[in-house]
Amino acid sequence: MSNSAIASPRDKYRRTTLTRGNFELWGWLFMRVSGVILVVLIFGHLFVNLMVDGGINRIDFAFVGGKLSSPFWQTWDLLMLWLAMIHGTNGVRTVINDYAERHATRVVLKSLLAIGFTITVVLGTLVIFTFDPCPANSPAELLPTICEAR
């Protein structure tokens, strides 16, 4: 064994391989910040849905339709969806990096993760912004009571 294989402890550290830069640092910071924001969003969501004004007994199609008609609740739900999905996807990506030993396995798992993330976020966003509890030209007897005001 030659002495050149082991650097002196007093030598300045130099990376010898390509690194990912600050991506992992930003991912780590994002997890902490998004976790705190998600706690506020989720407990606010639960409080409004389960505790305020009659609690769980008032949750029905009309309640959900009314909430999804409000720009405030659309924004709230959109933030919850996006932050939760990015937060969870980043966490699963980290687990894949830690436990998938083969490069091909990591590529397949991360691809499946990206596909699942994309489908869920796109469909969830579409539901939040396109949900209409009172579709036009629908028979009146099939519409919920909140549609009578139209």
Description of the structure:
The chain crosses the membrane at residues 25-48, 78-96, 108-131. This is Succinate dehydrogenase hydrophobic membrane anchor subunit. Keywords: Heme, Iron, Membrane, Metal-binding, Transmembrane, Transmembrane helix. The protein has helices at residues 23-50, 61-67, 71-99, 103-130. It has a single domain (20-149), classed as Fumarate reductase/succinate dehydrogenase, transmembrane subunit (3 helical TM bundles of succinate and fumarate reductases, Up-down Bundle), CATH 1.20.1300. Helix 1 (23-50) packs across helix 3 (71-99) and helix 3 (71-99) packs antiparallel against helix 4 (103-130). It contains 4 helices and no strands. By secondary structure, it is mainly alpha-helical.
